[in-house]
Amino acid sequence: MTCLPFIFGRKTTSAPKRDPDIDEELSGIQNVRLYSYKELKLASDNFSPSNKIGEGGFGSVYKGLLKDGKVAAIKVLSDESRQGVKEFLTEINVFSEIQHENLVELYGCCVEGNQRILVYNYLENNSLAQTLLGGGHSNVYFNWRTRTRICIGVARGLAFLHEEVTPHIVHRDIKASNILLDKDLSPKISDFGLAKLIPSYMTHVSTRVAGTIGYLAPEYAIRGQLTRKADIYSFGVLIVEIISGRSNTNTLLPKGNQYILETTWELYERRELIELVDISLNGEFDAEEACKFLKIGLLCTQSNPKIRPSMSCVVKMLTGEMDVDESNLTKPGLISDFMDLKIREQNSNDIKTSSSSKDTTISLPASGAENTTFTVNYDQSF
């Protein structure tokens, strides 16, 4: 294996060719191992299709056996990847300094030639999107206790990022496909390519809008003002998905039932939240606890971000250490309202489209594409 002296503290006979755009950044990272392309190629049996365990806009993920005997998930970024050099470095920087039982573990990376590869611990049960929300294409059964453990685990991982890490980390793309599951179905938050660091003295950062339609907090999607509350909104959507077994958006359903938050609020108003619980549970669940979890989901997705609880409070509510206060509960920020607003803005002469009209257009994807991550600028100043 070819290694770099600054990583291992010893000389090497032949250093790999490095991408000049990221060489300087990598030199300051102390806790990430650098793999050679040859080693990862060998580990994955020449990136064999039989070892492919995932694919997306970033490229492909392969299962591989490393020299030290560890089984790894090898994420190979394609040349056309949405995750550029900046996102690649962000992911490495985030993981080089933190560890938590509910975050995936980064083993190392490869930056040889034009190759950009991330190496993670392998998780046996893929993602929530594929196993729970995959439309019956998985043989993994999620009983009630497993679902509650997943909700609590993700909440704890986010609370760690938001409140225990300095500067605070906002993930920006919390969704079912970024929650991976180990052999025991314990959740691990993954894919930190869009993460932002927010110093404790700042209330928000203004940035390009990035994330996934259906999970985007309205105030962030419209104004580009990012706070930890954006992640909390996404978590609220996720918790409803986990309890219901349904994706947040399904354009094949009748118009009034396409967005799960709308359905959740309607059922809450009628005091029929229990109707939303996944029928695959066959009634084997704690009805009071199920309604409590759905109410927490509504609290996390409030239109007013100030009303949304912190993630540490969410953990306490989920575990029963804190009561769920419904006194200020109002209609959540809905994706349909957000889309209507964008349409009105696009038809207005006031919107800033003179220099780059493509940056102000956003449209709902077709069914099955809801989990596509995108980035878009609404204001040139972001």
What is the fold's blueprint, element by element?
Layout: H1 5-8, H2 20-26, E1 33-34, H3 37-43, E2 52-56, E3 59-65, E4 71-77, H4 85-97, E5 106-110, E6 117-121, H5 128-131, H6 144-164, E7 168-170, E8 179-181, E9 187-189, E10 196-198, E11 205-206, E12 209-212, H7 218-223, E13 225-226, H8 228-244, H9 260-269, H10 287-300, H11 311-319, H12 335-346, E14 373-376
Parallel strand pairs: 1-5
Antiparallel strand pairs: 2-3, 3-4, 4-6, 5-6, 7-10, 8-9, 11-13, 12-14
Description:
The chain has 382 residues and is of the alpha+beta class. The protein folds into two domains: 5-121, 2-Layer Sandwich (Phosphorylase Kinase, domain 1), CATH 3.30.200.20; 128-376, Transferase(Phosphotransferase), domain 1 (Orthogonal Bundle), CATH 1.10.510.10. Helices cover 32% and strands 14% of the residues. The protein has helices at 5-8, 20-26, 37-43, 85-97, 128-131, 144-164, 218-223, 228-244, 260-269, 287-300, 311-319, 335-346, and strands at residues 33-34, 52-56, 59-65, 71-77, 106-110, 117-121, 168-170, 179-181, 187-189, 196-198, 205-206, 209-212, 225-226, 373-376. The strands form five sheets. A six-stranded mixed sheet has the order 1-5-6-4-3-2, with helices on both faces. β2 and β3 (59-65) form a beta hairpin. α6 (144-164) packs antiparallel against α11. The longest helix has 21 residues, at 144-164. It is globular. It starts with a helix and ends in a 6-residue tail after the last strand. The model is unreliable at 1-14, 346-372 and 374-382 (pLDDT under 50).
Gyration radius, rounded: 21 Å
Give me the CATH architecture of the largest domain, please: Orthogonal Bundle
**Beta-strand percentage?**
5-15%
Number of domains: 2
Order of helices and strands: HHEHEEEHEEHHEEEEEEHEHHHHHE
Which stretches are poorly predicted, pLDDT < 50 over at least 5 residues?
1-14, 346-372, 374-382
Main pleated sheet: 6 strands, mixed
Distance between the termini: 42 Å
Strand order of the biggest β-sheet: 1-5-6-4-3-2
Output the structural class.
alpha+beta
> Which range best describes the helical content: under 10%, 10-25%, 25-40%, 40-55%, 55-70% or over 70%?
25-40%
CATH class of the largest domain: Mainly Alpha
**Global mean pLDDT:** 80
Fourth-level CATH superfamily of the largest domain: Transferase(Phosphotransferase) domain 1
Give the beta-strand count. 14
Categorize the overall geometry. globular
CATH topology description of the largest domain: Transferase(Phosphotransferase), domain 1
Count of helix runs: 12
Protein name: Cold-responsive protein kinase 1
Organism: Arachis duranensis (Wild peanut)
Family: Belongs to the protein kinase superfamily.
Pfam family, one: Pkinase
